[in-house]
Specification:
Layout (H helix, E strand, L loop, with lengths): L3 H11 L11 E7 L4 E5 L12 H11 L5 E8 L7 H10 L4 E6 L7 E4 H4 L13
Bound molecules: zinc ion.
Length: 132
């Protein structure tokens, strides 16, 4: 499998999830155009609205480390859940061309694949703002 290392990075990141309330542990790993892997996991707060998904943690880490071109994001969770709406929006803005690999942590050898564009077609982006 060509994405073995990326899938393992998402599974490893999931181990670092801080989700004491939902116990829904999620890991994400982004592959940059330069073949670097940046991973993240979800972090929850007792004030639930402050929690952040694994996809956004990985994306924010990558962006603030200076990475801006992404080819793939891999997301690992129990059941292989797809990204929430908030994460789809940010991925559409910052990783619009990326493929998405969804990993069920109980059966990581049978990933599902999709794309950011398939998850959020006709997305709202900075391109929609009028020219200043
Ligand atoms: Zn999310």
């Amino acid at each position: 499998m060509p994405y073995t290392k990326l899938i393992q990075a998402a599974l490893d990141a999931r181990e670092q999830s801080v989700a004491p309330y939902s116990r829904f542990n999620v890991g994400a790993a982004l592959l940059t155009a330069g073949k670097e892997i940046i991973s993240g996991a979800n972090v929850e707060s007792a004030s639930y609205g402050l929690s952040c998904c694994a996809e956004r943690v990985a994306l924010f880490k990558a962006l603030t480390d200076g990475h801006h071109n992404f080819t793939t994001i891999t997301i690992a969770s129990s059941g292989g859940a797809a990204p929430c709406g908030a994460c789809r929006q940010l991925l559409a803005e910052y990783a619009p061309e990326a493929g998405v690999i969804l990993i069920n942590s109980e059966s990581p050898d049978t990933p599902e694949t999709t794309t950011v564009n398939e998850l959020l077609p006709n997305s709202f982006t900075g391109e929609d703002f009028p020219e200043p």
